[in-house]
Specification:
298 residues, 8 helices, 5 strands, 61% helix
Length: 298
């Protein structure tokens, strides 16, 4: 009997540990999905999913085994109680009395589990912040390298524009923006031009609802300056670049590339928004090469 009880206790303990491990993986998966952690590579995520599925499968078998062994022990106990033990006999007095486990032990174990889970989430979140900082560095290194390659051609196309108007875009300028948009770490690329007639107005190319990846022809759009980002672009076009330079240093997936003009003013500003869901592990080598190239240039 004691051997079977030990087996039952071992199975129950193992099942509880497996269920606890599965719960931890589920909570980490929820935080990973909602906070967009970039701690785990796709290969590691596949391994974690496999570990989670294995824990759930083993826990299910553990629950079934515990149920069967528990029924067997209950039946065996009642059989011995009714067949061999007479109330008031010495055998009845010799039966072991089950000790009640204090409820505080369960509350303490649950508290410890919750504290460990909270500490684990905080530790992963801190690690993700460090990874996010590194991802931003890689993103901005790649942007600088891309602008070093495409910037001169973009500047020559902008210099050739007669002026901002609805149909003033060129096929080459459209192709350049489509090329940028096709990059996986780009979310959008918008070119801003000043309006020579009205300082409170800007032109953007393509339009705010323009589809860069579809087959529609890009057109320019005239709009009034209203947002803070529009004001920053407006100041950069007039020669005051402090605001956009500050935003380029901010921890965010965006970049403002200045296209110089004449008279101390900028001819245009290219606003780039990066894809914050992109994994930049694949671009690590490219970022290092871009950093070395930037060091040689400077």
């Amino acid at each position: 009997m004691r051997d079977r009880l030990r087996l039952l206790s071992l199975v129950v303990t193992a099942t509880v540990l497996l269920l606890a491990g599965s719960a931890v993986l589920v909570v980490l998966g929820i935080f990973n999905g909602y906070l967009h952690w970039d701690l785990f590579s796709p290969e590691v995520e596949k391994v974690l999913y496999a570990v989670f599925a294995s824990c759930v499968a083993l826990a299910a078998f553990g629950v079934a085994t515990s149920f069967v062994l528990g029924i067997q022990e209950v039946v065996s106990y009642f059989r011995r109680l009714t067949d061999r033990v007479v109330p008031g006999s010495p055998e009845a007095a010799a039966l072991p009395v089950a000790k009640k486990r204090p409820r505080r032990s369960y509350a303490t174990a649950l508290t410890v589990l919750l504290v460990l889970l909270a500490l684990t989430i905080l530790a992963f979140n801190y690690a993700n912040q460090r990874v996010l900082h590194h991802r931003l560095q890689v993103f901005k290194l790649i942007i600088r390298d891309q602008m070093a390659q495409l910037g001169p051609r973009l500047a020559s196309e902008v210099a050739g524009l007669k002026g901002p108007c609805t149909s003033c875009g060129t096929p080459t300028l459209e192709q350049l923006l489509r090329t940028m948009q096709s990059l996986s770490f780009f979310r959008s690329a918008t070119l801003y031009l000043p309006d020579p007639q009205d300082p409170t107005v800007l032109w953007r190319y393509p339009t705010s609802n323009g589809c860069v990846n579809c087959g529609e022809t890009m057109v320019m759009e005239r709009f009034f300056v209203a947002r803070d980002l529009d004001r920053a672009v407006q100041l950069a076009l007039s020669g005051d670049t402090a605001w956009v330079e500050q935003m380029n240093r901010d921890p965010a997936f965006h970049w403002y590339h200045l296209i110089p003009g004449t008279g101390g003013k900028n001819r245009a500003v290219l606003e780039i928004w990066g894809n914050d869901n992109e994994s930049f592990r694949d671009y690590e080598a490219g970022a290092k090469a871009a950093a070395k190239h930037a060091d040689r240039v400077h």
